[in-house]
């Protein structure tokens, strides 16, 4: 779909049309819980191991702490990490352990999508339907996602990662401005500029760098999260589907461009991608150090493991994606 | 050290002697925060990628849910996962999103060591000293671990994993009994039985399967966690040091044998291993599916990524370790 | 209703019949959010202040800590209280405050019904209907109770309290056995034994002591909460309605007798009392010290303030009820 | 102390001098845990019950929800309230209860001082000393306040409340401007203007209305909490001591004037009042509805119950203070 074809006044129509074009419902059977992770098979993973050339590894995770981007929207706070036991206590001699042992221990309370994360397949619904056409109220209740909980993807998310540094190729000083909608043309232009190692293949985990995180790191989060940001255009829905990628992640809060490209809308590309394509979306990743290394030697693909925490029934999960190249 | 040399009445003396033998303080400079992770270098990691033969991946994580082993000891509960938004709400039409979008979102409150985890270097102290000789009260306060927080290891924990299925080699029906202390001799016997792929090398991440998890899965947790379990003998301290492994993990709550091997003691091997050796210890991992595959084809090494969540200042972290073989 | 009339095989029929007899739907208008708290008016409260004779005050709250009765049923844990700042940190000099100031601060994560509590009117539904006949899915969503949230009762819950020490009057050594169903006859017998100060009047807050807490305090909680306990018989539904009391509380986890009085049932009296009568129910109160004082001087009524924490949309709330007599 | 005597450059000297004048250490024995609550005896409480004239009750609590004033300072967030079970789930028929019963249940994660609260005696230290001269590191560790935890005051905090509506008497349109320091003279002027019912007596719980909450309610919280606000002047330390009040509360985040009255300082009056006087301080109360009623009939004293939640070891507690008049 070309951006100029978007009717800003009709998100519902555009979503319905896109969903009709890209739906993968039933593609992997009616019991499927993995969606596009089905593209990431053992052979793909085996081949991806061959991309490790130097053995250097990069975490693509942002920090989990009170300095994060959350501002309380829909009860999403930054993580609150507190200690059950501390070194100061140990030194004060109050812990009661024998033979000079001291300990520190901790707890956390956090939204599962407060920092670097995967959206699970139960995160977004389209007109009451979850991935594979299931009624949303049969899938996600107060007890969590009873069918497509993130634990179902605990084993599979490692394979070929490809960085598309759109910020560097299209932006200025490596950054796209807020509100910039990345189209299929921009993605193609990025692949072309980066060279053959960034060619997109079936089963890939694509990491899109917009540069917005670099800017936030420099200027502060302000009233983010949820505010203006560069991101994928709604019109990339077909690309997301046709490329048969396993997953895609960005360095922004919301993956798609904010504000969205309709007059009144909220994350319309999510509504197509998650319940209809069955696509795994990563948000708030940190590709900056990896991007520098890719730029240095011109290799943009790598072995990527991005294993969600095995929280039963979760519709999202913190993740520390590690790229090895 | 041989098990028969242990004086059950003097844990403090045994710990001091072992610490003197195995201390790595200063080995990587006074500013070091990585301990034995220094053994896991790029070359080790590059070579490990070559272990991927079929591309099949295995999560070594237990579940994070209310069915876990915690019983409230020192305020360690099982994780409490709750929903901010659900599919039932979406279908009820109360979410207020436009164009038919519905969403589910969730939060979690949990001890960082409630299920599959890494102990960070700030987790245990020896007579008020943390890793590398630092005063514990300078390292871990109520604000968390200000020096060796788990975020310092966010990039590095991927490389060669080796499974030592002691439960299968030494135990009955694949399980060691509770209270069984795994000695250096047992480890050697396991390596010998499994063959050359399980030879231990510098920088390895060793996964010890005791079989206790298989038993708990069958019989329930009971009043675990913290109760009797098989685990490493205190006398393996030298082996842990001399092998120059990067990390070691077990399928039990506490890594070392429980009850401990002294008349009055609490986790004495931790006191040697974490602050003195600088060793990363994994607990409550689930090696069962991987072990079956290793047994099937006789290959016990694999590429392992076990990236902690990047929680600033954490002394431990949930992890979903993924083995690819 | 007499206990012998209960058909153990037909809880649904019994509930429907009781609901038909005792329903207060519409009694205070269709917008009502206070249910039986409407009985507790200013004049009742004014008169209750006259019950203060010595000025001695009694907290009727159990503790909020990890030693509580919860065992994880439906994700109800005991409260997890952790520190953000401590005295050990202050003394270690790491807090960064000027002029010698040090501080301690704390957080809590807890089910709202983990210890001494009020059930709000949104806590229980009868065949999809909440208090006053509202559809349950219009009342309580993931955002909480949007109509009868506990905050609506923030001002009103103080007035005349009356202790009915059924444990002392009917039980042995002050305790009713687990599984003992307190009937209307037992309540009448208790009033008669205690004398005129325990006569029940419109707008009263009735505190029923079963003695089970005294037993738990002595013997430990065991696998409680939710297990066998003395409590109100299903057959007291009419009494609860006809007395026009504002609220009733017990010293047990579940208010009504456990196991319930039907072959297959779960808290059937709740299903009548909360959505149909609109009754406020308190659970896990601690009346023991108050009961001793009442017994000493024979006065069983007092001024009681039991103000829920003003948590917007909560269907229950921790409370520290304070009786002054 | 007169405000003009304050040396803005020497908070530490001013604090030491004030502490020397007002210290109550040892006044109630070395084991004391109640501080100024010792002034609130049964006779005081008995007399206070006589203040109830109409029986109308007023909650002085602000809301506990995500719209609160917290902005993450020192990990203080607004409360996160989530549901374990909902009405939408009940109606969707997924709860598994028998006989048509449905339920809703909830949890909360919150700082104990996120909204209407008491500061416990373990909240603030003066040069490493807690209330009554105890070493702070013997009192408050990661396990909480082991001596003066808020549970020690669970029974006592009800008695005579007096509203000093300084905002109305001294301010414009009922509001003091941010940064306004309320001095002893302002308090005296308020008492004089309000008349004899606001005379301060031993054992009183004084509620000071600055009007800042009214302003925040109208204009929003902005970047509060912790920002500029009216409040008690440091120079009221002697008044707080000499009046022998049991407690004092304000409608602001921090009780004392913000910014504080020294060039570099943080809550210096707390440092005098809590550890030295042993005074209970309430913060973020909502006196507005009560103030209107007091103004209407000229009666400024009332029966006040402000019972903290009985959280073992807490250094602060949410509270729903209820005034009956």
From TrEMBL, chains A, B, C, D:
Molecular-function GO terms, alphabetical: arylformamidase activity
Gene Ontology biological process terms in this record: L-tryptophan catabolic process to kynurenine
Pfam families assigned to the protein according to its UniProt record, in alphabetical order: Cyclase (PF04199)
Membrane-crossing residue ranges in chain numbering: none
PANTHER family: CYCLASE (PTHR34861:SF10), PTHR34861
The protein's name: Cyclase
Species name: Nocardia macrotermitis
Organism lineage string: Bacteria, Bacillati, Actinomycetota, Actinomycetes, Mycobacteriales
